[in-house]
Structures are given as structure tokens and as C-alpha cells.
Amino acid sequence: MRAVKLILAFALVAGLAACGGNTPPSKFKTYDGPPITMIQVQKANRKMFMMSGARVVHTYDIALGFQPVGHKQFEGDGKTPEGTYIIDRRNPNSAYHLSVGVSYPNANDRINALAAGKLPGGDIFIHGDSRGPKPGWDWTAGCIAVTDAEMEDIYAMIRDGTVIQILP
Predict the structure, then answer these.
(1) How far is CA 118 from CA 59, 76, 110, 114, 127, in A?
(2) Disulfide: which of 25, 66, 104, 126 matches 81 by Cβ 3.0-4.6 Å?
(3) What is the pTM of this model?
(4) Over the stretch 114-123, which tens digit does the pLDDT of each residue have?
């Protein structure tokens, strides 16, 4: 009887040890490629380019705000900003997997929105989402969306202070 208990105990321990192999992989990756010095977004083409100097290191398909044509002018307009900004924050606990913040609104964005009697909005991010980009479907409130897996790579690649140029 004691031998049976030992065998069962061993089987249980072995089974639990095997379960440890099912731990989901971390969403935090490392990056050892060339430094990303600029991000360029081409809204019309729904493309985002990670640049090292003049060289394109990675290209991503993107989704934009639900009203993608034109520059974001005020809160709730559904547009993705256009212009030159910087990556100014990181959110490892984003509701959209991972995200990095874009420095919108800048001083001009605030002045123009307030002159129209509106608020400029904010909280513009590059973020992941399981929906990811799909042709013809822009669904964000003004952000730039990629898949969760792509966002893990992007999050590892770029640093706060990286310039992001968002083109029409």
C-alpha cells in the first residue's frame, strides 16, 4: 500500500511539474536590432514604418480612428492626428494589451481646438488589440492599432523620445 501511495505521489508531482510548461509567454520582449530613430505613419496607405536613420527596419499594417481623413482637431472627432510628435509614455497595463503614447496635443493643437470652442482631446496611442488592423476597418477613437503580437515587438523596439511623423 505504501508503494502505491509513493507511486501516486510521484505521478502527481510529475504531472504538476509538466503543467509549468503551459505558462503563457511574457508580452514583454527584448529587441537587439538597430535603434529605431523615427516612426513614420502613412495614414492613406494604412502603414507604419519603424526607421533606423533612413532605413526601414519594420513595416506594419495599421488601423486608425473611425474618421481617418484629416488632422485631429478636437475631442471625439474620430481622427488620428497628423504632424510630428514624440513617443512620450508607455503603458504596460493598457486595455489594448500594450501601448505607447503619442504627445498629441501639442501647443498648436490646443490653440486651434480652443479657438473653435472645443477641447483638443488626447490619449492618442499606438496600441495592440486582438481585432488588429483589417482592410477597410478603422475603429479606434484616434489611435493607431496593430495586432497584439506586433505591439509586443513595437513596445520592445521603441523608446520614449522617439519621433513619430504622422502623414496624411
Answers:
(1) 35, 10, 9, 5, 26
(2) 104
(3) 0.83
(4) 999 999 999 9
